[in-house]
Amino acid sequence: MTDEISARKLISIVTPCYNEEDNINELYARIVAVMATLPYDYEHICIDNASTDSTVQKIKEIAARDKRVKLIVNARNFGHIKSPYYAILQSRGDACVLIASDLQDPPEMIAEFIKKWEEGYKTVLAVKPESQESSLMFFVRKVYYRFITRISEVPLVKNATGAGLFDRVVVDILRNIQDSYPYFRGLLCEIGFPIATVPFKQPRRTGGITKNNFYTLYDIAMLGITNHSKMPLRLMAMGGFALSFLSLLVAFIFLMAKLLYWNSFQLGTAPIVIGIFFFGATQAFFIGVLGEYIGSIHTQVRKMPLVVELERVNF
Predict the structure, then answer these.
(1) H-type alpha helices, the chain
(2) Of 298, 297, 96, nearest to 188 (Cα)?
(3) What pLDDT digit, counting tens, does each position of 53-104 carry?
(4) pLDDT digit string, tens, across residues 250-303
(5) Distance between CA 98 and CA 86 in Å, rounded?
(6) Buried b (16+ CB within 10 A) or exposed e, 87-122
(7) In this structure, is the dihedral angle defined by the CA atoms of residues 55, 87, 34 and 186, taken in order, positive or negative?
(8) At 245, phi and psi to the nearest 5?
């Protein structure tokens, strides 16, 4: 019996937290209930992004009575991209499961993730073809996923939330990549293993408030583009060439018109003003896109750590 227990595989469950005091107890209870039905040992790694409420205290209380629950407290808020990725790299299980702590990724999906893993898939991703979130936001997300899939240099999984299961082989590859600001969903596709999907209808958040805002959503959207596609840069080059040719053509037409109709042809200020604003806007757009790529390069070359830890519990 002892040998049988020790031979059981270990599942690492990672839940990133930031000000989730209203959800953490229910999250823990639902994970315990799911894992009780599965023939695996598990560790539950909570990584807290410097919460300002009682989230850390509640996790410590749970960890005191359940040693399977482990806690990493970040020295400051390192963002919603770095923190979960860092926690995955700290896992030691035969497979690692990532789910959000806001309960919008139902913990009950863990059983479905593991079923796909048992079928031989090394990567399993949750996808949300339906959602109870704002219909406008859901539409914008679908349009973005469709767009990034079209321009990406590798096939991406549409409507993936980032939640899923990753075999130890995948986690080991991620450790060797050493990406300091990864677009996680795209990185999994770049690795190249076949990906199984688990569709679900995303529920509304019932406790706490969302931590996403325009900046965080824009950040991850641009990260997906700059990390996985050179098409915007090439469109800028081709667009610049086309505009240059068009400008020369228009200049030639105006020159010929003036030479042929010297006394009657008047240029006027409207075309000049329109041209200035058009080319000014085009240049600002091109410089902005170029700046995003330069910013991505700057982030990588600094070689800053993903996370600096303040403390660990139960490791």
Answers:
(1) 2-6, 24-35, 55-65, 79-90, 109-118, 135-151, 168-177, 184-191, 214-228, 231-260, 270-302
(2) 96
(3) 999 999 999 999 999 999 999 999 998 889 999 999 999 999 999 999 988 8
(4) 888 888 887 888 777 776 777 788 888 888 888 888 899 899 889 888 888 888
(5) 11
(6) bbbbbebbbbbbbbbbbbbbbebbebbbebbeeebb
(7) positive
(8) -65, -45
